[in-house]
Amino acid sequence: MISKDQVAHVASLARLSFNDAELNQFTDQLDQIIEMEDELSQVDTTGVKPTTQITDEINVFREDVPVDDGISRDDLLKNVPETKDGLIKVPSIIDKGEADA
Amino acid sequence: MSYLEMDIETLHEQLVAGKISSSDLVESSLDAIEAHDSDLNAFVTVNDQKALAAAVALDKQGIDPDNKLAGIPIAYKDNIVTKGVRTTAGSHMLDNFEPVYDATVVEKLENSGMINLGKTNMDEFAMGSSTETSYFKPTRNPWDLDRVPGGSSGGSAAAVAAGEVIAALGSDTGGSIRQPAAYNGIFGIKPTYGRVSRWGLIAFGSSFDQIGVMTRRVKDSAYILSAISGHDEKDSTSSKQAAPDFTQFISQDIKGLRIAVPDEFFGEGIDEEVKTQVEKGLQQLEQLGAVIDHVQLPYTKYCVPAYYVLASSEASSNLQRFDGIRYGFRAEDVKNLDDVYVKSRSEGFGPEVKRRIMLGTFALSAGYYDAYFNKAAQVRTLIKQDFEKVLADHDLIIGPTSPDTAFKLGENISDPLKLYFKDVLTISANMAGVPAASVPAGFDSHGLPVGMQMIAKRFDEGSIFKAASAFEAATEYYKEQPTFKGGAH
After folding, report:
1. pLDDT tens-digit series, residues B412-456
2. Which candidate, A96, A90, A76, A12, places its Cα nearest to that of B330?
3. Which principal EC class is assigned to this enzyme (chain A) (predicted)?
């Protein structure tokens, strides 16, 4: 059984926020899904290696040289929500607006 | 000209003979979209101006007689990035995103002279089996407008089935090409993992995702898959195995082809009419000379739980990049950097995407990793071995693509778990990385298409093309055309 507190904790790890009604709904749904996933515990996996990728490659290396794919700085900044002087603009990292923050 | 009566070879002959032009084909597509898309919602973005300009330029230059794909329009699922053409992944998060580069598959098809007609609707970030989780609008099924087209490549499937285009690309993480292909009565192939470069495919579950082709005719997919296959240094998981010309397998004799039919694919929860149609299909393949064996894939029932642990875990990691900073949606009214992340993600993602991120984050979190992620990855090994064992002495595994035919809009959207089980027959091919396709196998009593799934060994798409084309020639289900019934709104 997953609790509402656990769900709230997972949400904070995932950088998501939910209001109380959403949190209740997600707790119910995740609980059902996780219960379904718990069926995996019926499988005997003693000594079985996990599969996390299915290519035949082990590692792929390339020379550590810059790649010129013809994309300019202006191109790259085109989709940035807020820019200033050709840089990506973000809000202040430390909240200075609230006295109790 | 209707794409419903055409194949790529015929179009090519007419283009070379000057009976039609590439611009005519783009116009035909735009007319069909005009006629049907207000009902279907197959497209998120119609690339009309640029497509016309490209076709006009190609007509001036002349159609290359050695290149079957030149001048033919194609649609791309909206999670395949297209330079200068909005790419949304069906999400509010990316609804203003204009990529600055082309996916490798797009680049390859443009080099072959194919025209990008537009971007097709999909479940948000490819998470869903009905195209109802799209931020924009649900796509409808051209065989019955009250029903879903399947998903997540539902827009691509509906666009092809309705004759808006002759071909579309989709992506398949747990069945997202094959299930909509089945629901729309078309052919759809998910190639071997690594066969096609994923560069420029917006990532969902990177060890499962694969781009593939959806067409009405089998040979048309063979042409396009041949053009998009091959190693790409930009995708280190793409294989160095040489890709054959897949059209060589079309119309080959299937005498002696060894087919395995797993009991588990005809078990509980599979619709009786679907079973009947697929069994009929198997008899037809037998008459064509195939040899049928009944086999067991005992781990089939663990596919859904293992997949939802693993694919959600990969998704939770892949979707961390959407933080409102460099591209995509950024929430307003934020006080600090952490606020930007949390608010942008909470407002930018829809409920299904959040559910998967939450599931994945849970499975990877301290204290649960071994019980969920690692356990599921071990079960994946067993599922893969199941397949390897059966495919060691069979050419194909065949069963239904989906447990049912297209369901009604809204019928399953409030019950995520019920929807997850729609993937029960398609997930295993992604688990094992093997190629798999859905082939039209007739209709149920409601006139809804049934799909038959063909699964082959890694890098043996050839056996699928062989059997699918033989089956297509024997049954000619592609001659049936969608009715566009229902959909009073």
Report:
1. 888 888 889 989 999 999 999 999 999 999 999 999 999 999 999
2. A90
3. ligase
Two tokens at A23? Answer: 């949190």
B77 in active site: yes
Q: Which of B305, B365, B378 minimises the CB distance to A37?
A: B305
* Rounded Cα gap, residues B443 and B439, in angstroms: 12
Residue B45 has pLDDT above 80, yes or no: yes
Residues in chain B: 489
Catalytic residue from among B23, B29, B176, B226:
B176
Distances (CA, A) of B239 to A56, B15, B201: 8, 34, 16
A34 CB neighbours in chain B (<8 A) are 359, 362
| Assigned domain for A77 exists | no
Looking at the complex, report in whole angstroms how far the Cα of residue A25 sits from the nearest Cα belonging to chain B: 10
Closest chain A residue to B414 measured between Cα atoms? Answer: A29
Residues B142-173: pLDDT tens digits? 999 999 999 999 999 999 999 999 999 999 99
Instruction: Please give the residue range of the domain that contains residue A23.
Output: 4-42
Cβ separation A55–B100 shorter than 8 A = no
How many domains does the structure of chain A reveal?
Answer: 1
- B contact test, residue of A26, A43, A67 with most B CBs within 10 A: A43
Q: What is the mean pLDDT of residues B333-349?
A: 94
pLDDT, residue A95, reads 62
Question: Do the domain assignments include residue A70?
Answer: no
Q: How confident is the model at residue A97 (pLDDT cuts 50, 70, 90)?
A: low
Residue A38 lies in a domain: yes
Say whether residue B366 is in contact with chain A using an 8 A CB cutoff: no
**How far is B402 from A64, CA to CA, in rounded Å?**
46
Nearest Cβ partner for B325 among A17, A60, A90: A90
Q: What does chain A come to in residues?
A: 101
Residues of A in contact with B375 (CB under 8 A): 40-41, 43, 45
- Domain ranges in chain B are 3-252+405-479
Partner residue opposite A51 with nearest CB, options B336, B365, B384: B384
Residue B207 contacts A where some CB pair is shorter than 8 Å: yes
Decide: B158 and B37 in contact? Cβ < 8 Å: no
ipTM above 0.95, yes or no: no
Whole-number pLDDT of residue A101: 38
Spot the catalytic one: B68, B77, B457, B466: B77
CATH topology of domain B3-252+405-479: Amidase signature (AS) enzymes (3.90.1300)
Q: Is residue A84 part of a domain?
A: no
Give the residues across from B187 on adjacent strands. Answer: B215
What tens digit of pLDDT does each residue of B206-227 get? 999 999 999 999 999 999 999 9
Give the residue from chain A lying closest to B383, CA to CA. A51
